Amino acid sequence: MSEKDLTGIILKNEARGEVENLMGRYAYMLTAGKYDDICGLFTRNRPDVRVEMNWGVYDGYAGVLRCYANYHKNEICGPGVMAVHALSTPVIEVAGDLGTAKAVWISPGHITGGMFSHDKELRAHWAWMRYGCDFIREEDGWKIWHLHVYGMFMSPFDKSWVDLGDAHEMPEFPPEYAPDRPSSYSWVYSPDACTEYVPAPPKPYETFDPADEY
Predict the structure, then answer these.
(1) 84 forms bridges with which residues in the sheet?
(2) Strand ranges inside 23-122, DSSP E
(3) For residue 83, which of 4, 38, 92, 209 sits 20 to 30 Å off, Cα-Cα?
(4) Is pLDDT above 80 for 155?
(5) Rounded to 5 degrees, what are φ and ψ at 211?
(6) Considering its fold, how many domains does the chain have in total?
(7) Average pLDDT in the 79-99 region?
(8) Are strands 141-156 and 50-53 parallel, antiparallel or unpaired?
(9) Distance CA 78, CA 140 (A)
(10) pLDDT digits (tens, 9 = 90+) for 94-126
(11) How does pLDDT run across 119-133, given as a tens digit for each residue?
(12) CATH code: domain of residue 17
């Protein structure tokens, strides 16, 4: 192995660790309700930065702020609220040019609150999802570029998701919370549905291709 090849491996491994730590910070901040700090994990230098939730897509950094600093901060926060979206099974690929990275995680979790029910009563739910993310390296380090949440199921902790399916009761959002457009992908568990290979783990790549973005 040449010195150049060895250096490339070392740099990619360092970048992989930085990306994993970045998403780890995201998960810890989400649990603690530090939504303003979460916004700082996203790039401000790309007009196509975005967050895609099960209920819609938030475009641009203004969309990131609307999603976290407005909706999450006001609705998924406060006494009795607890949201834990753990990160497991990471597959992280850093581009050969070291400028971007792609990654997926399965996220087992739970959420307690009234944000997904019309009566706003506190309820405890299992909440499992998957993440597909693109990252970009900037002068001050790695930033989240595209964060896409892919649903799996959410059900009351004492009920079977086989019987209930997804328990979201999403009210119509006021403009200050509303996404910019509908979600590009929608799948949740049902007894009649087969689990889909989405998002597919990234493969090694040299430079970012918009056709493969999450």
Answers:
(1) 110
(2) 50-53, 56-59, 82-85, 88-94, 100-107, 109-113
(3) 92
(4) yes
(5) -65, -20
(6) 1
(7) 96
(8) parallel
(9) 32
(10) 999 999 999 999 999 999 988 777 777 888 999
(11) 778 889 999 999 999
(12) 3.10.450.50
* CA distances to 78, 149, 194 from 122, in Å: 11, 23, 31
Does residue 214 sit within a domain?
A: no
Cα–Cα distance measured from residue 201 to residue 176, given in angstroms and rounded to the nearest whole number: 34
Domain contains 211: no
Question: Running DSSP on this structure, what letter comes out for residue 45?
Answer: S
pTM: 0.94
Q: Is the pLDDT of residue 27 over 70?
A: yes
Instruction: Identify the pLDDT of residue 16.
Output: 97
Burial category of 10 from C-beta neighbours within 10 Å (exposed 0-12, middle 13-18, buried 19 and up) = exposed
The residue assigned the tokens 């059900």 is: 155
Is residue 213 one of the residues assigned to a domain?
Answer: no
Q: State both tokens at 103.
A: 């990654």
Which string of DSSP letters, residue by residue, matches 130-170? EEEEEEEEETTEEEEEEEEEEEEEEEETTS-HHHH-----P
